[in-house]
Amino acid sequence: MNTEPVFDTPHDRHYSREHNIWTQRDDTGRVRVGVDAFLLSSLGELAYIALFDPGMAVARGHSIGTLEAAKMTTSIAAPISGVITAVNEAVLADPQLINRDPYSEGWLAELDPTNWEAESSQLIFGDDIPAWAEESRQRLSDEAEHNG
Amino acid sequence: MTWQLITADGVEAAHGLAADEVLCRQVGAGRSPATLRLYTYRSHCALVGRFQNLTQELHLDYCEGHDVQINRRPTGGGAILMGRDQLGITVALNGRGPAMHGRARDLMEQFSGGLLHGLQQLGVEAKFRGKNDLEVGGRKIAGLGIYRDSNGGLLFHGSLLVDLDVPLMARVLRTPFTNIGDRELRIIAKRTTTVREQRGDSIGIEDVRQCIANGFEESFGIRLQRSEHSDEELAAIDALAQDKYFTRAWLHQRSNVPDLSGRKSIRTDAGSIEARVSMAGKTIKSALLLGDFFADENAIVDLEGRLRWHASDAAAIEETIREWAYATSTNGLDPVAIAKVVLAATEGATEDIDGTVPYGCFVTPTQPTTPTDG
Question: Which of A17, A81, B98, B311 could anchor a disulfide with B316, C-beta 3.0 to 4.6 Å?
């Protein structure tokens, strides 16, 4: 029986290779961000999360909040620059919503991007997703093997 | 490869934490070399985990009346008491690059390996256990944590018990017990150990520090070079202490996730089983299994370890307990009954500050309170 974990990586969004955060832009230009399956696998069960308030401007790579999970505490890096327009109150009260549904109900924040065209080109998108996902899956598999 | 080694003693709480965070930032940004910092806090400082509630974890009146400084770490985990006999261990590394969160767990192995090698040099045979603990014969001797900042800086924190004043710790940190008497102190003392206790001598902190430094050289295959904070780092530490670690907003912040606790007892053919759970919202932070059943203590400790930082839904609890029962000798304990009582404790958990089980890194027992404790 194949027991390899399956990592979902929906193709309707962009992924940050370095931060393992997904972004999805809607028709109004707003961008939702959330945690991808690979980061979730490294973190384990989430227990706490804090996000900066709407109205705050963040540069790409800067922190939009912090979360504490079973395996570590980590700052959450903004995958693009912008102004926070909303945070997901549901995940603040129930961070495991992210574990249960990372790509939909478990979104973290919405940003009004200030440099989308340039910065999104540095994210993984479209036809590049499968190769990146396979590389990430393989890396996690190697780590799991190494850690016994 | 050469890392810088920074040492300090009698550090104030805010500056000690600010120094670690600045090192993490500087190293992550490539402005400072990889660093090992081995230091002690002033006696005494009580440091809670990143998202803990101060009032729930600390006896604040006692701290105020006895000059115990309080603060909040950037790393997660439970509250700790630090002072001249507890060695703070910080490793700051550059964690930039793809999938660094996964890599951080690998580095955690090396980090704990550094401590284990150092303890070995001290004649103490410890092992890594659970989420982030180092134990000797099931008794905790060090607590560990990881924090990754948005720059890619990785901060590994450790607190090593060279010695411990258990009665003082119980006055500073809240414990799962309503009253603290000799029995409760014995329970806590039985679940922790120290370098001095293991060695049976009064080895000085400097000798411990040297052995731990040697352990890190061995574990990471690096050479350490003694150094001091740069002027840039010192200025940043002062600024961060003022702007963050001295502020009420940082100290007294509360999470939106409610802290809950619950307990439930059932009678089984193998004896009575009581489950006590401490939860962050829907996550089980810790579980204690008590009662008059006969079981291998290590098996119970193993199960409690598996249930730490665990989802509280029925399917997840049942699966974990099934896996535990499959891998362990349960001595006739019915895994279905255990799952039932743990689930009932989580379902009945409520937000009651007085009743919520505090989560002190060295005070929350991780072994069952059996009649032999009394």
Answer: B311
CA–CA min distance B133, chain A (Å): 12
Q: Which value does ipTM take for this structure?
A: 0.83
- Taking a C-beta distance cutoff of 8 angstroms, is the pair B1, B34 a contact? yes
Question: Strands A14-15 and B69-72, how do they pair?
Answer: unpaired
pLDDT number for residue B227: 96
Q: B99 and A76 in contact by Cβ < 8 A?
A: no
Angle (nearest 5°) at CA B105 between B103 and B107: 70
Please say whether the beta carbons of A42 and A102 come within 8 A.
no
Q: Does domain B259-373 have CATH number 3.30.390.50?
A: yes
Would you identify the CATH topology of the domain A14-141?
Answer: OB fold (Dihydrolipoamide Acetyltransferase, E2P) (2.40.50)
pTM of the model: 0.85
Contacts 24+ apart (CB under 8 A), B327-330: B328/B296, B328/B299, B328/B302, B328/B303, B329/B296, B329/B299, B330/B295, B330/B299
Distance (Å, whole) CA B98 – CA B167: 46
Chain A residues in contact with B148 by the CB 8 A cut-off are 72-75
Asked if residue B115 has pLDDT above 90, the reply is yes
How far A6 CA sits from the closest chain B CA (Å)?
16
Q: How far apart are CA B302 and CA A148, in angstroms?
A: 17
The whole-angstrom separation of Cα B81 and Cα B48 is 9
Contacts with A49 from chain B: Cβ below 8 Å: 255, 257
pLDDT at residue A84 tops 70? yes
Q: Does residue B51 belong to the interface with chain A, where contact is any CB pair within 8 Å? A: yes
